[in-house]
Structures are given as structure tokens and as C-alpha cells.
Design the sequence.
């Protein structure tokens, strides 16, 4: 059984194969001009068995949030992001490039392609962004970080659970992101049994929610509507920040090569 808690934005807690994976932890109430909407971050995030960092942007790699975690927690991250993560006191960073894998906490964790800007700042050094495929036995979960649609998604399926970003932290989206329509099209490539929209409804500029509130709530509903047309066999579950769900993994006759 796979258990998922949507902490908010790109932060999730995924329990698969008995291990808990924390993705892109943002545990504070504010990041610069962005204010957290919804409940506070789940305190269980601090006890994760492994942390995944997809890329260096501040809404995915927040150093004060990392400093709240156990320093001996293993981190899996893009190779060039290691020195930045270590600044938060993290002792063990496993650097991966897309296509590479590591075995951590009993899981096979494979870095996947991501079409996104990997620099922390526009003028900074790039660290190639990545998503991750989590595998244990027949259980398969995909966390893409931030990415645009890419054809290589077809090689990642079938999946038990896909976490798909459907928006961002403001009223508009820049390049390198999935919007509700592109996330719905991604379902046909990924072929998950269950899909949960993420990267919405959590971080938003202070005060803007009064003037333009729709991006805080509309994107996942639009995704669900479009997914019903594009991939009607996929079970789409819209979780509010702080909500949880479980997925029973489908038993397969033979595990995929490389599965643990």
C-alpha cells in the first residue's frame, strides 16, 4: 500500500515499501513575498527516511526548512546542488543525474528527466533539474518536481501513483511548468492508476489572494475535468493541502527491471 500526504506546493510525504519520502520540503509560513495558505506543514515531515530535492529554486529548495530536518537524513538531489544543501547542515547528499539510480531506505530511486530551469537565480550556476521514480517491489510512484511535458514520460509508465504539478505560486505560469491541460495530456504518456495534482493552493504572494484568488483553487479542478476527457481510466484525486490518501499497488506478474 502507498500512502500520500499532500503537505502543500511540491512538498509531499510518500510512504512506499515501508519508507517515508519527503519531497521538496517547504515547511515555513513564508518564503520572501510568498505566504503559506492552508494548514501548517505536517510535523511528521521531520521524521522522513529520505528527502528528495528536484531542483534549486527557492520554492523547492528552502534552506531554513532543511535546517529543521534531522541532519543525518539522506538527501537525493541533483549532483550540482549538493554544496548548497550541505549549507543547511545536511550530512549526506546523494547526487544523481537523470537516468541514474540509488538504493536508499530500501527503495530504488531513479532520477528522471525534467524540462525546467535548474539555476537557483537567473545569473547563478545551473544544477540539472530532475524528477524521481520511486520503486519497491511492484509499487511505482513518480514525482516530477517542476517540468514541462516531454516525450520521455512514456518510458516511465505504467505507474501506481503520479504526482503532477498543475500550477505554481502566482497568477501566471512561466515556461518549464505543466498547466492543467498539459498535466492532463501527461496522463496518457505516464499511464498511472491514480494521479494527484500538486504544486497549487499553498504559496501565493501576500495580499494578491484578495484580488486574484482563482489560482489558489481552480487549477486542480480544471485538471480533473480535462483528465476525465484525456485519460478517463485514471483515478484523479484532488487533495487539499494537509489531506491524505492511500493507493493499493497493483500486483504484476513480473517486476520491471531495476525494481527492488
Sequence:
Amino acid at each position: 500500500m502507498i500512502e500520500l500526504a499532500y503537505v502543500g506546493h511540491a512538498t509531499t510525504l510518500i510512504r512506499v515499501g515501508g519508507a517515508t519520502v519527503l519531497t521538496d520540503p517547504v515547511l515555513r509560513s513564508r518564503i520572501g513575498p510568498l505566504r503559506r495558505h492552508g494548514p501548517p506543514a505536517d510535523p511528521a515531515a521531520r521524521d522522513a527516511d529520505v528527502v528528495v530535492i528536484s531542483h534549486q529554486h527557492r520554492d523547492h529548495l528552502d534552506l531554513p526548512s532543511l535546517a529543521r530536518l534531522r541532519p543525518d537524513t539522506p538527501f537525493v538531489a541533483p549532483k550540482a546542488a549538493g554544496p548548497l544543501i550541505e549549507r543547511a547542515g545536511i550530512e549526506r547528499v546523494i547526487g544523481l543525474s537523470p537516468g541514474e539510480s540509488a538504493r536508499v531506505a530500501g527503495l530504488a530511486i531513479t532520477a528522471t528527466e525534467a524540462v525546467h530551469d535548474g539555476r537557483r537565480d537567473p545569473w547563478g550556476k545551473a544544477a540539472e533539474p530532475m524528477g524521481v521514480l520511486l520503486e519497491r517491489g511492484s509499487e511505482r510512484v513518480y514525482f516530477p518536481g517542476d517540468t514541462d511535458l516531454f516525450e520521455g514520460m512514456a518510458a516511465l509508465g505504467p505507474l501506481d501513483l503520479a504526482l503532477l504539478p498543475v500550477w505554481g505560486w502566482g497568477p501566471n505560469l512561466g515556461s518549464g511548468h505543466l498547466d492543467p491541460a498539459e498535466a492532463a495530456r501527461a496522463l496518457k504518456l505516464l499511464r498511472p492508476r491514480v494521479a494527484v495534482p500538486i504544486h497549487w493552493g499553498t504559496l501565493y504572494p501576500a495580499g494578491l489572494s484578495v484580488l486574484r484568488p482563482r489560482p489558489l483553487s481552480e487549477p486542480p479542478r480544471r485538471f480533473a475535468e480535462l483528465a476525465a476527457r484525456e485519460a478517463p481510466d485514471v483515478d484523479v484525486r484532488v487533495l487539499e493541502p494537509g489531506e491524505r490518501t492511500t493507493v493499493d499497488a497493483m500486483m504484476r506478474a513480473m517486476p520491471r527491471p531495476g525494481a527492488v
